[in-house]
Amino acid sequence: MSGAAPALREPGLLVDDDALYLRTLQRSLQRRGVVTCTAQTAAEALAAARSQRPGFALVDLRLGGESGLTLIGPLREIRADMRILLVTGYASIATAVEAIKRSADNYLAKPVTAEAILRALADEPGAEPEPEDTMLPLSRVEWEHIQQALNDTDGNISAAARLLGMHRRSLQRKLAKRPGPERRGEQAGD
After folding, report:
1. Nearest to 116 by CA among 22, 29, 6
2. Which of 57, 78, 125, 162 lies 20 to 30 Å from 118 when distance is taken between CA atoms?
3. Domain boundaries, position 14
């Protein structure tokens, strides 16, 4: 990695409350020579950042009941030159603007591939997002939308079903069919 971006020459920090997603992303980056540590809460992330002083941090917008936006400032205080990428399954212009206002270096839609992370960290000039980096499977979009409704109703399934305009039992069936992690970018040869 002689030509690697400075952020990639040092360990990185992955922050997400989804343990399966964290492990998958960490393994995918490791196969590409990028060493990372992980955290599932804001407190764990700050502790890891203080001890590891990572070159970059990939932070999920939603960390259980916490917002990843609140981590940007404290991470910058720990290391001013840390590259901070905010990722979310709930992409919106408002959160993208807020992330940039708080000094995040980039904002990516989830699930994000290792290649998209590496491109964002390398700041490839004029690099356009690849279709596989931005197109989410319909089942994943539906799942994220349901999770947003559940989060907005504090986990109340009946209230979430009303918010989504569906019957409670239909919502329960959809919740039982959680989509598996996408394996785009992890085909044979990776």
Report:
1. 29
2. 78
3. 6-130
